[in-house]
Amino acid sequence: MPEGDRMHALVRRLYPLCRSITGDGVRETLAIVGEQLDLTVHEVPTGTQVLDWTVPQEWNIRDAHISRDGERIVDFQALNLHVVGYSVPVHRTMTLDELRGHLHTLPDQPSLVPYRTSYYAPTWGFCLAQATLDAMPDGDYEVVIDSDLADGSLTYAEHVVPGQVDDEVIVSCHVCHPSLANDNMAGVAVAVELAKSLRNPYYTYRFIFAPGTIGAITWLARNDAARVRHGLVLACAGDRGSLTYKQSRRGDAEIDRVLAHVLRDRPHEIREFSPYGYDERQYCSPGYNLGVGSLTRTPYAGYPEYHTSGDDPDFVTPESMVDTLTVCREAVDVLERNRRYVNMSPYGEPQLGRRGLYESLGGRSDAKDAQLAMLWVLNLSDGDHDLLTIADRARLPFQAVAAAADALAAAGLLKVG
Amino acid sequence: MPEGDRMHALVRRLYPLCRSITGDGVRETLAIVGEQLDLTVHEVPTGTQVLDWTVPQEWNIRDAHISRDGERIVDFQALNLHVVGYSVPVHRTMTLDELRGHLHTLPDQPSLVPYRTSYYAPTWGFCLAQATLDAMPDGDYEVVIDSDLADGSLTYAEHVVPGQVDDEVIVSCHVCHPSLANDNMAGVAVAVELAKSLRNPYYTYRFIFAPGTIGAITWLARNDAARVRHGLVLACAGDRGSLTYKQSRRGDAEIDRVLAHVLRDRPHEIREFSPYGYDERQYCSPGYNLGVGSLTRTPYAGYPEYHTSGDDPDFVTPESMVDTLTVCREAVDVLERNRRYVNMSPYGEPQLGRRGLYESLGGRSDAKDAQLAMLWVLNLSDGDHDLLTIADRARLPFQAVAAAADALAAAGLLKVG
Amino acid sequence: MPEGDRMHALVRRLYPLCRSITGDGVRETLAIVGEQLDLTVHEVPTGTQVLDWTVPQEWNIRDAHISRDGERIVDFQALNLHVVGYSVPVHRTMTLDELRGHLHTLPDQPSLVPYRTSYYAPTWGFCLAQATLDAMPDGDYEVVIDSDLADGSLTYAEHVVPGQVDDEVIVSCHVCHPSLANDNMAGVAVAVELAKSLRNPYYTYRFIFAPGTIGAITWLARNDAARVRHGLVLACAGDRGSLTYKQSRRGDAEIDRVLAHVLRDRPHEIREFSPYGYDERQYCSPGYNLGVGSLTRTPYAGYPEYHTSGDDPDFVTPESMVDTLTVCREAVDVLERNRRYVNMSPYGEPQLGRRGLYESLGGRSDAKDAQLAMLWVLNLSDGDHDLLTIADRARLPFQAVAAAADALAAAGLLKVG
Is residue C310 predicted with pLDDT exceeding 90? Predict the structure, then answer.
């Protein structure tokens, strides 16, 4: 199956599961991902202190509905977005007026069901289309949420591809959203394919599949962030929009420059860091300030279907996920080869011709990229400029500059600085 | 009386007085200002060395005219601009040709009388409309200037509003121009209202009413400029043009950032420092290099009525002075609350929800300014960024950011850095 | 003879000589330049190690042709570009097919003869118009190159104008191209006139006439580059295009700021440094990183006639060379007078009026450049800003600022910082 179709199939398979920040929906999601990647699954008990937070009780839900005369008008079995995440159990008969305070709709998008949660304030609620609500007559309704909140654990998983060095690149995806396809099963699907294609990399690559906010915080609380050299938060990876890269808090981290380079010749947008969005919020909190950016297509809250039932598997396309994946791979290629070299023959140009590195016929004005790349690498390899900076400055493809560095290093003219 | 009318009334009352860099015109001006503000008036004797300068002799004038056949053709009593400031006494009969070398006109603005001075070279002269000159027949004229130059003193005044700290904000207005309304009785009127509205501020505010150049130099010679943290030179505060802020010599002083923020959403112009204009020239001389900018409406020499009889009370409006005053007050509000904080919980985001600082219903995409402001303050409060920088970076109003900081500090999540 | 005509006459006289990186063509060129400038000619023996390179064997050529039936079809005597530089001797009869691998043409510019060299790979070849080749019938051709490659020396020359200080400004021209007028006999001609007009300068000026690449490398190997404070590589100085300045590798060297200032009000282009072009490649190699930029009209490889027989004396004009020379002289004027001063009276403005430096009549709004220049120099002379920075900041001509500094220094208000 082509890669795009494979990713789309995974999105469709994961889509119906009722995920939240804890519970069996996350476990089932990770089990399916685990069919393709070797995962280490972590269970962190309720009550565990993680940084400023505490792991909450685990939430599971079996059924929920609003019924009238025995007919389910709002039905969790049809769409799990209908229940506010972390709703406490309820089984009552109520009038529509009593019920209204527990109903969430989108008046401006009357046919769509919103996604709502209440993780840390005990309450219950239903999400439904405004059109559905408008059609509900006054009278009594049976209201059922068959859920439970109990001590248990928070679940997250890691897949590690060992590298030549312990310095890590992390790729982080949130897995806490129920039936929302672009946000974030598309990100999970792209991460899975990216992970599968890594072969003996230079850096160690760590893929983190964790619930948003509390999951990233739990991971940070239990790991040494100092080994994280670069990272990407992957989300909204499959819609039809063009790519958006949101810079790390540093703004000039290597990952920021890498993505700018890789996206240079594609339609794209680069945004400055803001402390609102996905788990880059945690990785880029001031105490960590990691070189972690966020790659999306249409960004956080940027499309009308965002956090609604409109974000279904038809909202994401195989082609878009392949495009996101391609950019991730190109970014990895640059990260892997980017180094800072020192020119060992910095006084004047070394004589490249006698080393077979320069064409012998002089006078031509159409110098090849390969020769220009060698001259740029020699000129700027003073310990201050890495290859990516040189490629940007020279307006040459990174791979041409990296190949030039390899040739010059093989000739003894460069060493790693 | 509304504020605007009160300021305009003050301009009209001060306008007729014959001010110069010394003399009774300044004293009368300060006496009128002193009806509204508690002023300390300083008299610095002629001959006092002030920095590189010496306080000159005091100049006073009772009358002056050019008459023909007993009729006053140019009459100081009608408009004090008619006499060149610091003119030595004269009483002669002269032909028009002899007189011409002492006459100043504006050939391109034939109906306006220019403003001219000669403080440091002893001479005399008259300023008149070109049209008046053109109508003067050849023949003999009686020329009278009943002035005197004698040892006396230079007069300036201060009004101080004590703050919680000794660090000072200065507001400096020149009071040496005779009948010119925008330049600078409007600046004086705005400063008076600003001073009256300050209540128990953080900084100590010092309002300086002094003659231009020599007055500012005298003040600098007699005070410790090191306590001046911020300052504004107020001039041309009442014409119908939009606001202009001229940066301090530093260009990135806090006052420069404050004014850029306050003016952001108004029609305005920001100019780089130049060593030409008002008393910012002295405060920003390289030995002091204070964080003092200059706020005007249409800037120095930027309007045709500048330094002419066209700058009369009708040239300034209550509305314009109110607008200038409003911006001054907003700038003061920012200065007063701008601080550098440190996030006490910098690893990951602190859990705002359990502190009642974050709304409990998740999933919505329309985060409120108040919540965004808290996230920005937490993320950037690393000791490097003050609240104003955070507000600019977050594109949020300063007051929203300051309120967020107050809430976070109250919750123990921030402390002053 | 006017300067422009004199330069053009020199170009025409030097044009026919068969220069290369070594050999008698360079010696003859330097002998003619030596008629106008006092030159020190250096001969560096074959085999001498110069940085990473070795001085090659010397190449001389007496005759060359491709003939058929005794008729010269390609004739070195008619145009020395016809022979690939450093061609080894050959005397054979060959078919056209055998010959083709040794022939160089420009299919897209069929009437022009290209310029080609093979300094470091022993081979031979002819350059000819595509039209000539197209007209050559199959059959046998006599092929003669009467050249020799033998131990000898590399020749370059220097002309030095001693200055008040040992710090040097270098002006470097390559003299290795055979019959190409703009590239670089025009550069040589401009350098000669510039050198002749220098009188008792502040800096020591060193004019270097050397073969490209190996010549500059030889000069660098034999001299102390640390004394080079500023420099210009002069090339393509006579075509009809506007001026192009290519920055030094530093990008903000004083020479870079000087040329930006001098070119400000002319049609021009400023390019960032790149490690491809003329001998700035060597002077700006990372070990030296000298403040040396490159001044051309249409830059390196930027015109269709570049490195072809189209670059003949008609391609350069007296007017263009005069324009290049004028800019060089203006740049020298700025370099010579640019200093960093310290204001000796930095607290407030010094009283310029009593020193006769400020006009006594106050109130006018049309301050003169000379007065503005004094205020700017006083305000910014804090040891951080040189006069050129002040002129750029004040948007005043450099000479006005330098004159102000002279006046202030004469009054004891400034000293060299």
Answer: yes
